[in-house]
Amino acid sequence: MDLFGRIMGREASLSKNIAKERLRLVLVHDRSNISPQLLESLKEDIIKVISNYMDIDRKGTEITLNSDDQSVALVASIPIIKINRVYPQR
Length: 90
Prior knowledge:
Blueprint: H1 2-32, H2 36-51, E1 54-56, E2 62-67, E3 72-77, E4 80-83
Antiparallel strand pairs: 1-4, 2-3
């Protein structure tokens, strides 16, 4: 029973953490006044521009909004595979 209790405790803890993260994201979106569609569009634009200069891992890319009581920050974690040495002409 102790093993079952520990496994169930981990699952409850995992669910709790997922719920907390979702609530945090909802609150950040509300505070920043940015719709999920706008954030998704922003993510795609950022990925498109950065992809002009380096090969990135799109699946591993995370772009989120973080906030505290006074400000909102755009935070990006973009794994770089290779930096391109030849840049596109403007």
